[in-house]
Design goal:
Blueprint (H helix, E strand, L loop, with lengths): L1 E3 L6 E4 L3 E4 L8 E3 L5 E7 L2 E2 L8 E9 L8 E10 L1 E3 L3 E3 L9 E2 L1 E3 L5 E4 L2 E2 L3 E9 L3 E3 L6 E6 L7 E2 L14 E2 L7 E6 L2 E3 L8 E5 L1
Parallel strand pairs: 3-8, 9-16
Antiparallel strand pairs: 1-2, 2-4, 5-6, 5-7, 7-8, 10-12, 11-14, 13-15, 15-17, 18-19, 20-21, 20-22
Length: 208
């Protein structure tokens, strides 16, 4: 396709619409068969840009051949599309076990253009990290930015002391555990759960 100036058949060859991916360099190639001075301008909507755009979006690019003593001004405007770059979700690194404290999941492949929420948790169970991209990137097919991770339940440990109390006195079971989970205490005689309200020996079971 050629655009001819008003003077004697001189033309611009090339300078066509272009589609590129964010992060890739580009240029507009063209040839001018006259000796007119050429300039290229970039626009976002009606706004003229100070430099060649690099962010994803749609732009218009205007080539102008300046008027001189022999030739009239000639312009050509084409569309420039910079598509978002496809990227993959980060992945979870490591295993996590409940310890009573806030834990932060480690993500492999987390880039500066990604922001995260939900990467901290305390309780055992399933959790989700929501990863958000900037405007220059999009998720590859099969990715949605939601990354699952989990905290496994811890194996609690107990230390219980034997005790001897007088009938009618308060029974206070002394135990230690690194877990802050709910503790239950049950009493047994002959493998039957009972209430310790008579003299005798009882088996004390402390559970977390």
């Amino acid at each position: 396709q050629s655009y001819v100036s008003k003077a004697a058949g001189f033309a611009v060859e090339g300078f066509e619409e272009k589609v590129v991916v964010y992060g890739n360099d580009y240029s507009f190639d063209y040839t001018v068969s006259s000796n007119q001075e050429a300039s290229v301008e970039y626009y976002k909507g009606e706004t003229k840009l100070a430099s060649k755009p690099t962010d994803a979006g749609e732009y218009s690019v205007k080539l102008t051949l300046a008027e001189n003593a022999k030739y009239n001004v000639l312009t050509k405007t084409v569309k420039l599309t910079i598509n978002q770059k496809e990227v993959s979700e980060p992945t979870v690194s490591g295993c996590y076990t409940y310890n009573g404290s806030i834990q932060t999941v480690t993500l492999v492949g987390l880039e500066s253009y990604m922001s995260v929420a939900g990467n901290k948790a305390t309780n055992a169970g399933s959790h989700e990290v929501v990863v958000t991209l900037d405007n220059n990137h999009k998720w590859a097919q099969g990715n949605d930015g939601v990354v699952a991770w989990s905290i496994a339940k811890a194996n609690a440990s107990l230390s219980v002391e034997d005790l001897e109390v007088e009938l009618g006195a308060e029974i206070k079971v002394n135990y230690t555990t690194p877990s802050n989970g709910q503790v239950t205490i049950k009493y047994y005689q002959n493998n039957v759960e009972v209430t310790p309200d008579a003299t005798g020996e009882y088996k004390v079971v402390v559970s977390v």
